[in-house]
Amino acid sequence: MSVLKEMFENLAKKPATTLYPKEKVPIPPAFRGRIAIRDEKCIGCSKCAVVCPTQCITMVASEREVEVKGRKITRKKKPEVELFMCIRCGLCEEYCPTDPKAIYLSNEFSGAGPDKSVVVK
Amino acid sequence: MTEVVVPIGPQHPALKEPVNFKVVADGETIVRLELDVSYNHRGIEKAAEQRDFVRVVPLLERVCGICSHSHTTVFVKGIEEAMKLQVPPRAQFIRTIVAELERMHSHFLWLGVAAHEVGFNTLFMWTWRDREAVQDMLEEMTGNRVNYGTNEVGGVRRDLSPDEIQAALKRLPRLEERIAKYAEMVSKEQTMLLRFKGVGKLSKEQILKLGAVGPTARASGVDYDIRRDDPYLAYADVPWKVITDTHGDVYGRTLVRIGELQQSLQIVRFCLEHIPAGPIRTNPPRAAPRTEILSRYEAPRGELVHFIRTNNTDRVERLDIRTPTLANWTSVAVSLVNQNLADIPVVVAAIDPCLSCTSRITVVNERGRRIGEMTWDELSEHGRAFYRARGRR
């Protein structure tokens, strides 16, 4: 009998589901989404590539003047991420020494697509 | 009547994960059940030996899709024990909150699956809707619905802000109300009573003999819970009680799980309200000294054991994972004897099986084309030879 009561209660309510592509679900600020890189901040230290559990980050050659603790240096490398190998654990962001982080997990989700070899630069 | 063998699986539309049952049936009655697990061996234990303590944690999180926090907690707990680290109390409380939320979402999931197996899909929809609230809480606190990425050796990776604590506390009354409703529903609803009562019955003696763990054991009156008997995290500081039942059947297991849902909610509320201030991590040393640790944890499905051997380096020399499902399988085979064929799904679902986590043994045919299985002696000999060839011990 308790089921019948529950059924009538639910009849008066709105559906529990959201119409996904039309309505976007709220994303909490802490959400770990698609990985992103701020190229202008990266100092080429390779810490992210070393700590990555899936080794999806490779350091590629890219020269650029960057500022580290007030000093101007020329960085030699920058990270590139093979997106579909990334498990979004956030270790790269945690180990990145720059502020704001040069490599971080954005709030972007719904990253499905037909291309398997997406590289985040 | 003659006995008939009904093969089910390993690939079968009714199964969610690969497992093979050979059901020997006499008419509609089950005479014997032969189980064959390990169709999904993923080599996680070996992979864990190749990674240092920072990079192994995200790997272990992926042993199981439901109890991902359990596997990392039991591992970092063992490593911290080896390193003799004092983890800050705030980190322990955050771990406890995530662990109990995980138990809640696992038990909600189980209740839905059990209802689905008896054809009561309405309840399946309701419980999974309410499970979303728990998942949203976990997402807000940790950043992901499934792989929380909370643990690291020495503490937790993410602190809880006062806003997040308040937001989580606000969600609890609604969940409490829903759990109370399910508790009432289970003891009154005819669909469930008819399909759950007296099905898959196991006595206390049988449970102790077969070594079943978790809610399966507690439903038969075995008063055993790692959280109380070998306290870890913040459980020693939190008021809660172990739920047991004497029915011993699927109905008893449902009652135990619903009781645990209520207890978990109380633990989460207590931890959120009484979370101590302070740091959330200590800096661990890079390497762990040579030692052997047996780390135990009460996962949603039962006692989870990680055997860890460290050797003065920054990675484990050997990691052995004993999941609760492996301990519970034999109880399924025994409790199904003399039951009805139609009761297989619900009795199997009653232990909340998690097959990919359980698969640990691979059959190796090194010498020639020998087809068959490895005996226990052959397997242990193979293991000794492997480690000897690697030049350690």
Main features:
heterodimer, A: 121 residues, alpha+beta, 3-stranded antiparallel beta sheet, two-stranded antiparallel ribbon, B: 393 residues, 8 strands, 49% helix, 12% strand
Description:
The complex is a heterodimer of chains A (121) and B (393). Chain A has 121 residues and is an alpha+beta fold. Chain A has three helices and five strands, in the order H-E-H-E-E-H-E-E. In chain A, the strands form two sheets. Chain A has a three-stranded antiparallel beta sheet. Chain A has a two-stranded antiparallel ribbon with strand order 1-4. Chain B is built from 15 helices and eight strands. Chain B has 393 residues and is an alpha+beta fold. In chain B, strand 4 (151-152) and strand 5 form a beta hairpin. The N and C termini of chain B lie far apart (56 Å). A three-stranded antiparallel beta sheet of chain B has the order 1-2-3. At the A-B interface, helix 1 of A face helix 2, helix 5 and helix 6 of B.
Subunit organisation of the chains:
heterodimer
Mean pLDDT of chain A: 87
Structural class assignment of chain B: alpha+beta
Q: In whole angstroms, how far apart are the ends of chain A?
A: 59 Å
Topology pattern of chain A, helix = H, strand = E:
HEHEEHEE
Most extensive interface between two protein chains, with residue counts: A-B, 20 and 30 residues
Major sheet of chain B, described briefly? 3 strands, antiparallel
Q: How much β-strand is present in the residues of chain A? A: 25-35%
Overall average pLDDT of chain B? 87
**What count of helical segments of chain B does DSSP give?**
15
Number of strands of chain B: 8
The radius of gyration over CA of chain B amounts to 22 Å
- Please write the string of helix (H) and strand (E) elements of chain B: EEEHHHHHEEHHHHHHEEEHHHH
Number of separate helices of chain A: 3
Poorly predicted segments of chain B: none
Rounded to an integer in angstroms, the radius of gyration calculated over CA atoms of chain A is 21 Å
**Shape designation of chain B:** globular
The biggest sheet of chain A, with number of strands, parallel, antiparallel or mixed sense and barrel status, is: 3 strands, antiparallel
Structural class of chain A: alpha+beta
Distance between the termini of chain B: 56 Å
